[in-house]
């Protein structure tokens, strides 16, 4: 029975190490024009194991777990300055109210960045 418990833990620990790393909390950075955005997440992990043994039927065991990844904020890097913009506003309605404003700003930054890179128009 002890071997079964050790085997379950030995299988689980490497998988847990893959989940718990800085890239899980700080997401992949992405560039929008002159601005770099880095998502910041909270991670909640739960797991359990169990086993049993009877004298006639042998032994059995199993385990399970789950992970919840929740976006909490964005690190915003612009002109060498870093700021954090929290998504925790107290209610989902407040968050939804901010979506159009954020999208407009991102679209404006994207349009500004692509206009700078456009080649000059040829004269006829």
UniProtKB/TrEMBL annotation:
<dbReference type="Pfam" id="PF09579">
    <property type="entry name" value="Spore_YtfJ"/>
</dbReference>
<dbReference type="InterPro" id="IPR014229">
    <property type="entry name" value="Spore_YtfJ"/>
</dbReference>
<protein>
    <recommendedName>
        <fullName>Sporulation protein</fullName>
    </recommendedName>
</protein>
């Amino acid at each position: 029975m002890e071997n079964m418990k050790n085997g379950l833990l030995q299988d689980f620990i490497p998988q847990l190490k893959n989940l718990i790393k800085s890239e899980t909390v700080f997401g992949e950075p992405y560039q929008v024009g002159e601005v770099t955005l880095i998502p910041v997440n909270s991670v909640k992990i739960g797991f359990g194991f169990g086993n049993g043994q009877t004298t006639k039927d042998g032994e059995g065991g199993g385990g399970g777990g789950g992970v919840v990844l929740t976006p909490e904020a964005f690190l915003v890097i612009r002109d060498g300055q870093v700021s954090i913009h929290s998504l925790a506003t107290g209610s989902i309605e407040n968050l939804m109210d901010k979506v159009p404003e954020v999208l407009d700003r991102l679209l404006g930054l994207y349009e500004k960045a692509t206009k700078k890179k456009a080649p000059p128009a040829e004269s006829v």
